Amino acid sequence: MPLVYADTSALFAYFHPLDAFALPVTRAAQKLAPDFAYWPLLRFELRHNLRQSRKDHYGEIAWRALRAAEKTQARLRWQPELKLDSLLDAAEEFSADKAQSSHAGSMDFLHIAAARRISRDMDLDAFWTCDAEQAKTASLTGPRVTLFQIPKA
Amino acid sequence: MNTVTAKLLHEKTGQCLDRVRRGERLVITREGQRDALLIPTSEAVDPDWSEIMAEVWNAQANTPATRPNPVLQERQKRNHAARLR
């Protein structure tokens, strides 16, 4: 099963059926059938946003799907070696190198640092994001980047 | 979940299988990498995404996607420095 690091923007769109990026992310996931890398920061950011979306039927559907995926060993593949303190150091180094040539924000850098750490130790098939600035920065380094765009009406 | 090296699994296969038969799940590592899972046959393997996401995909097919992505919105709000450049 391919392993993809999906930034929280893409994972949120995957789980929430009404997200503006839901369709392209779902199509890509149906085509590749990847497992997604999962670690504490990604879990926190994803759960936080999905909790806040639990205002209606669709938010509840998204939350149930996330919880079902979290119960698996592989669909959301837990990365025990990703620790926030060491990744903050890695993101800091990455920022020192690239911040002035990038418009991506600090969280973007942190997720890219995490993806780079995984790809150092194992095969990472792609980095998925809905964030254009993050995609530009990620493409300077690490795995193949997929940037999702809102489908034209 | 407990970890067992491939070497230990090779040397003590029976003991490892006894542990799994008692319900333990073992991660098999080789050269420090997590390579495989040993789980009891009574446990189901992970469901596919199509099973996990059935309700989401059904809702997506019947309703137009219209909501802005909150993760992007939050980051755009916070990322003042880059926007000032």
What does this structure look like?
The complex is a heterodimer of chains A (153) and B (85). In chain A, strand 4, helix 7 and strand 5 form a beta-alpha-beta unit. Chain A is an alpha/beta fold and 153 residues long. Helix content of chain A is 55%, strand content 12%. A five-stranded parallel beta sheet of chain A has the order 3-2-1-4-5. Chain A has seven helices and five strands; from the N terminus they run E-H-H-E-H-H-E-H-H-E-H-E. The longest helix of chain A is centred in the C-terminal third of the chain and has 16 residues. Chain B is α+β, with helices and mostly antiparallel strands and 85 residues long. Chain B has a single domain, classed as 3-Layer(aba) Sandwich (YefM-like fold), CATH 3.40.1620. Helices cover 49% and strands 18% of the residues of chain B. Chain B is built from six helices and three strands; from the N terminus they run βααββαααα. Chain B has a three-stranded mixed beta sheet. In chain B, strand 2 and strand 3 form a beta hairpin. The longest helix of chain B is centred in the first third of the chain and has 9 residues. At the A-B interface, helix 1, helix 2, helix 3, helix 4 and helix 6 of A face helix 4 and helix 5 of B.
